[in-house]
Every structure is written in C-alpha cells, then in structure tokens.
Amino acid sequence: MPTTLLQSNLSGLEMIHRGKVRDVYALSGNRLLIVATDRLSAFDVVLPDPIPGKGEMLTQISNFWFGKTAHIVPNHLLYTPLEDVLPSDTNVALYSKRAVVTKRLKPVPVEAIARGYLIGSGWKDYQTIGSLCGIKLPAGLRQAEQLPEPIFTPSTKAAVGDHDENVSFDVMAAAVGKELAEQVRDATLAIYKWAAAYAAERGIIIADTKFEFGTDEDGKLYVMDEMLTPDSSRFWPADQYQIGISPPSYDKQFVRDYLETLVWNKKAPGPRVPAEVIAGTSAKYAEALQRLAGITLE
Ligand SMILES: Nc1ncnc2c1ncn2[C@@H]1O[C@H](COP(=O)(O)OP(=O)(O)OP(=O)(O)O)[C@@H](O)[C@H]1O
Ligand SMILES: [Mg+2]
C-alpha cells in the first residue's frame, strides 16, 4: 500500500520551506532533505485532500529520470541513505520512497521550460502574438501541433499566489547573466530531447516540461527539484494524440476538469474532492510511473 502524508513533521530538523508539494529541511554539510508530500495543488491552490502515494510516485519518477540523465546534466541527488539523516524516532516507511537527500544549491530564479508541442500558455501566446518568449514560429500551426524543433521558453518564478510569466531569452539573460542563461537553455533542451525520445518508445509524448536549476559554491550548474513528473510536465498517451484538440494527459487535468464543474473562485481555501476523483488522480500518477519508469509501488 502507498503511504499517505499531508504534512511532514520531523522534530529536530530545521524546516526551511514548505512549498505547495514539498517540505524542505536543512541538513549539515550544505545538504537538504526534501520530502514530497501527497498534497495536490490545482490552479496554484493546495487542496485539502491528499492523493495517497502521490509524493512517493513523484519522487520515484524524478529519481528514475535523474539517474537516466545524469550523463547529460549533473543533478542535486546525493544518494545518502535516509536512515543516516532522519531523526531516530521517525517512521522510516513513511519517508523511504518520498524523501531524498540533495545538495543545497542556489536556485536560478527562472522556470526552465522546454516545449516540443504547442499547448497551454504557449498555444495562447502563439494565437495572440504569433511568437513565444520572443521566438518567432511558423504561421498556421494548430493546437497541440509538434513544433519544428523543441524550444526553450523560460518563465519567471512568481511569488506565492501569482502566476508565472513567459519571458524572452534576453530578459532571462539580463536577469541571471548570459553565460548562465545559455547553460540553462542548453541543459534544458538536452534533457528534454533525450527524455522525449525515451518516452516516445514507450508510447508517451512529453509535450512540454519544466526544470529548476541551481548552482553550487563554484558556480557549477545542477538540475534540482523534481524532474519529468506529471506535476512538471505534460505527458500525452501517443495513441490518443490528435492535432487540433487538447489531448488527455497524465497530469492534473482529471482534477482540474472536476474543479471546473464547481462554483469556486480558484483562491484558497480549495474545495474538497470526491473519493473517486482522488482515486482517479492517484491511478493517473501510478500509470505514468509504470509506463515511463516500469515501476509499480506496492
Ligand atoms: N537542491 C535544491 N537546492 C535548493 N532548493 C531546492 C533544491 N531542490 C528543490 N529546491 C526548492 O525546494 C522547493 C520545493 O518545494 P515545492 O516543489 O513544493 O515548491 P513549489 O510549491 O513548487 O514552489 P514554491 O517554492 O514557490 O512554493 C522549491 O522552492 C525548489 O525551488
Ligand atoms: Mg515545485
């Protein structure tokens, strides 16, 4: 059975961040303990009901991709056994599949997005201004159509409650420096291209995905946070893909579709979600983990 954890509480460790999904603790030696909980956010609001096992599935998917892509871009994982860092009274089984020990990095303050297909905010921008983050695209592209070439479309990381904003490469370069911006762009596209090809062999299209990067004391770049999960990516079953419509995906669409039937202003507090929607969402995460990583959580 997957475990369920809405909020971690590790006494004796210093919690430095409670994000929408992850609880982050500081460890000695410039390290972090990152715990993926079962919190589900939709429209940037954390919902009151957990999705059992979601944090475990997210962590397992990320760990899988971090391992597979380490030859392309180094990542934040340290592979320290959790028993070495968890307080001695911790229920280890609750954390063993959802927590990782990582290098503590200085975040590059952008969302590094790669897009291979025209959907979401990319499709919106294309329809209104014909370009995306300053990248001119050919005329006549349709919704969900594959782009001639994957593109890097950074966005600013918004403060809590705000939505992210697409920016051009030049705006990003002005903010973080040209050299770092180029490194982030190249790393983003390299991982995306490799992963998209890998997933395609398993019948899954990775339409787009978001990475976060950080640098160490020496300025060396690492990919951090999560990688190629249903929360950070649009995965489409290839056999249901059709240009012109928004394909069904393995992400939170299931929950979003339910929420759209409610009268709710998309502000906190979020509404309760019925058991069948929770089960359906959990099954989507499990399917992504199985199809991509070949992993089934007992
Ligand atoms: N190796 C790392 N070093 C430093 N920070 C990291 C590292 N890996 C992840 N993080 C940060 O830890 C946090 C993870 O929390 P989570 O994913 O729940 O946040 P979020 O809700 O997506 O965003 P926010 O941080 O704005 O709440 C993120 O802020 C992420 O940038
Ligand atoms: Mg996050």
Description:
It is a single chain. This protein has 298 residues and is an alpha+beta fold. The protein has 2 domains: 14-104, Phosphorylase Kinase, domain 1; 107-251 and 260-267 and 283-288, ATP-grasp fold, B domain (D-amino Acid Aminotransferase, Chain A, domain 1, 2-Layer Sandwich), CATH 3.30.470. It is 30% helix and 24% strand. The protein contains 7 helices and 16 strands. The strands form 4 sheets. Strands 7, 8, 11, 12, 13, 14, 15 and 16 form an 8-stranded antiparallel sheet that branches. β1 and β2 form a beta hairpin. It starts with 13 loop residues before the first strand and ends in a 5-residue tail after the last helix. The model has no long low-confidence stretch (mean pLDDT 95). The chain binds adenosine-5'-triphosphate and magnesium ion. Magnesium ion is lined by residues 19, 21, 225.
